[in-house]
Structure prediction request, 181 residues.
Amino acid sequence: VMNSKIDDANIRNDEIYHDTKDQLTVLDNMHLEILNHSRVINKMIYILKAYHQVMHDNMAQNSRTESVFSSLFNTLFQYLKLSCALSEIKDAINLAVQRMNQLHQAVEDLAANRMTSNLLPPHQFLEVLKSVKQVIPPPAKLFLDVKLENLHSFYKFAIIKSYATETQLRVLIKLPLKNDN
Prediction:
């Protein structure tokens, strides 16, 4: 009985030893797997840190590039504003030169006692003729009917004189009249 108990104890001891050995093997395997996983995780962390640094560097570069582009855009915008202002000044100067040429031509026409569209544009001359027609006492009247088709003849036959006051330049227009009598 004792022998049998000792045998049972030895069998149990062997079983416990084998179970312990199996458990140690499993633990060693788990430990190796944990070490491998830890290495993989550490590599991933290293890669992520490197990627994060690259992303951070790229973001900083993008920020600098954006700042440069913003500065260039502002410079371009200022240049365009300046260009528009210069274009407006150029147009104003061209208009002033054109008006000065018209004034010079009008003064030359005035000095030559010639009535031209430089002195009085056609639509204004037509209005003046209509007003004159209303105040001419009958039986006298203008030598032609006052209409657009006859305006060239009115310019051709009008004789002008001018005189200046302290504040004005006055132009007198002499037009031929006819009398139906």
Q: What stands out?
A: The chain has two domains: 1-112, 114-181. Residues 144 and 150 are 7 Å apart (CA to CA).
